[in-house]
């Protein structure tokens, strides 16, 4: 198994997300700031190859380089990618969709309806998730290659996947303690990416201590800037 990369968009939830990645796979990911490297190739020369990438939430907009950094290049890397919140919006932009202002959600719990595919395979619908965002993907601008997999009851896009590439995203925070089945969503992603062993347990309840427990695995983090 190659290393798993978490790109940190300077968000306070990144290391909680990284812990959830470790629980889902049994392997601690490498966490890199979105501006740690000048180019994607420079990062690969320094760190080697990755088997999967998780793009963290973060402030700002994916259309602004200073906010999104090297994340924008991840979607063309031919590596499985899971975009969370800002990373979800970035997936839409990468294929020609647009992001617009939406209702502000700050720690808001919402019911999400999903199609049972990809990240949501085997999970009940609706399920409750925690949202922190003020931008939303404009579904009407999405290209045919991107499929909406989840929406709020009011129709806001909460999940997407690429129809032929291993690219997936959620607008909400799966790592939040009050998001139901967050660990299972990550397990589903890493199974798609071929990074989960059959022995990985499934939670017996939608939200529980297992989702918030420390793994005991050391999360690797690089300095904020690398001259490469």
List the helices and strands and how they pair.
Elements lengths: L2 E6 L5 H12 L4 E4 L6 H8 L2 E6 L9 H4 L2 H4 L6 E4 L1 H9 L4 E16 L12 E11 L8 E7 L4 E6 L4 E4 L11 H11 L16 H4 L7 E2 L7
Describe the structure.
The chain contains seven helices and ten strands. The protein has helices at 14-25, 40-47, 65-68, 71-74, 86-94, 182-192, 209-212; strands at residues 3-8, 30-33, 50-55, 81-84, 99-114, 127-137, 146-152, 157-162, 167-170, 220-221. Strands 6-5-7-8-9-4-3-1-2-10 form a ten-stranded mixed β-sheet, with helices on both faces.
Shape: globular
From the alpha-carbon coordinates, what is the Rg to the nearest angstrom? 16 Å
Low-confidence stretches: 197-205, 208-215
Summarize the main sheet: 10 strands, mixed
Protein structure class = alpha/beta
Widest sheet, order of strands: 6-5-7-8-9-4-3-1-2-10
Taken in chain order, the helices and strands follow as: EHEHEHHEHEEEEEHHE
Quaternary form:
single chain
Please state the average pLDDT score: 88
Number of E strands: 10
Helical region count?
7
Q: Could you give the distance between the termini? A: 25 Å
